[in-house]
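Intended use. Records like the one below are meant for learning the mapping from a protein sequence to its folded structure. Do not use them to infer anything beyond what is encoded.
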Amino acid sequence: MLGLFVGSEGTLGIATQAYLRLTPRPQDALTMLAYFCCLEDGGQCVSDIIAQGIIPAAMEMIDAMTLNCVEDCHKLGLKRDAGALLVVELDGPKSAIALEKAAVEQCAFNNKCLDIHWAADAQERMLIWKARKSAFGALGRLAPHGYVLDGVIPRSKLREAIAEIHSIGLKHDLPIANVYHAGDGNLHPCLLYNRDNEAEVRRVLLAGREILELCVNLGGTLSGEHGIGVEKLLEMKAAFCPSDLASMLSVREAFDPRLLFNPGKLIPTTKSCGESGARPLLRHQIGSC
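Structure written out for the chain above:
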């Protein structure tokens, strides 16, 4: 029942209790900041690290557009001429981290890494993470609105996905800033736009759908963290065949025959355009329909 309930987005009921398992605090942690000529090289580095059997506590990557916005905001001393910034954090026993550190560095240099810096203390580690965690807020310098996607791909396909997302941005004449939870293949392309420009909003919707379909075609899925909700209802048909969706609906009806729990979410049963995946972007324009 746990696997069924998790991810049902409130359509099967409400959780009232949860049991958590604690894990020991790691003995040590090391945080690396690495610069690459381009996103593709950084993405290949991530794939190579995973191929070595190393599972870092975190691997996060941002592109040049985002890097420069963060530097404009916070003056962290980031290298503006880099095409990508990769943050890798290792934790665990000190002896294991030392071996992993050497392997991670080798993967970085094998992929044309421009520079590597390891945090010397907790304060430096916080500054490195600030470069990643302040990324979305910093993008407000470029556009009044940003539409953040949440697709997932196999980590071995990261380089290919980066190139294809860039092509989609060019096709629809949209700037796309990229922020990746690269360690688990969770992509957060941020499509920058002005929602008062209806033509721009339409291009965002089309580009967003293409990016999510790309994730599915590469062997991934529609969401790693943010869920389906109403935003991705139409894209569910790209990830699941009609019989899959019918099975999901029958399970839902077994718990809730009248479909009262969080209606209109997760499974496409839309009855009006106001319930479609376009609603989050067009809610300032949509009236009754």
